[in-house]
Design a protein that fits this description.
32% helix, alpha+beta, 185 residues, extended, 5 helices
């Protein structure tokens, strides 16, 4: 009797395992098609990684040959990489990975002769507005609502109610309160 109940339990357990395995295999197939979702339902949180200095085309336009190192640092910020073996070169590298936006990587190289700027190599830098739009994952849909009333809407507002004739003009004054001193005297 014990063996028959044990074999019945094993049959049920094997069937449950087979059904679970089949369901898992089908779910795995659907999650392969959409790599951003787990089990085809849940989107996991991805950490936003920002490294380096954002340098826009407006900032790069302010940097001119002949400027000192401190002037360049004031405009572009501190470089991400400075090499002790190549003290005449600063590298500004910027990378960003943000969920819902394409990853970006830019590199700007600044070269010096002594203390004055010799050249700047900055290929394809976006304007500030373009950069903000490229990382904005909360794009607004449609026209933003107006926060002010126009003349027609103000005319449709009901007129303010006049005070009743029998209503008291002012609220009665509350009695003055006295509080004990904070420190003993």
């Amino acid at each position: 009797m014990f063996l028959s109940s044990l074999s019945g339990f094993l049959v049920v357990a094997v069937r449950a395992a087979a059904i679970s395995g089949a369901a898992l295999a089908l779910t795995a197939c659907s999650s392969i098609a959409n790599k951003d979702k787990v089990l085809g339902l849940v989107t996991p949180y991805k950490v936003e990684v920002v490294q380096g200095n954002v340098i826009t085309s407006e900032q790069a336009a302010l940097v001119k040959p002949g400027q000192t190192r401190s002037q360049v640092r004031d405009i572009l910020g501190s470089p991400l990489l400075t090499d002790v073996f190549h003290t005449d070169r600063w590298d500004y590298i910027f990378t960003i990975r943000r969920q819902g936006a394409a990853p970006q990587r830019r590199q700007v190289t600044v070269r010096f002769e002594g203390d004055s700027l010799k050249s700047i190599v900055a290929p394809e830098l976006p304007a500030e507005r373009e950069f903000v739009e490229s990382i904005d994952t909360f794009k607004s849909r449609g026209k933003p609502p107006s926060l002010a009333l126009n003349e027609e809407q103000m005319k449709r507002l009901p007129a303010p109610a006049a005070p009743a004739a029998d209503a008291p003009a002012a609220t009665p004054a509350l009695p003055a309160r006295t509080y004990p001193p904070l420190e003993p005297r």
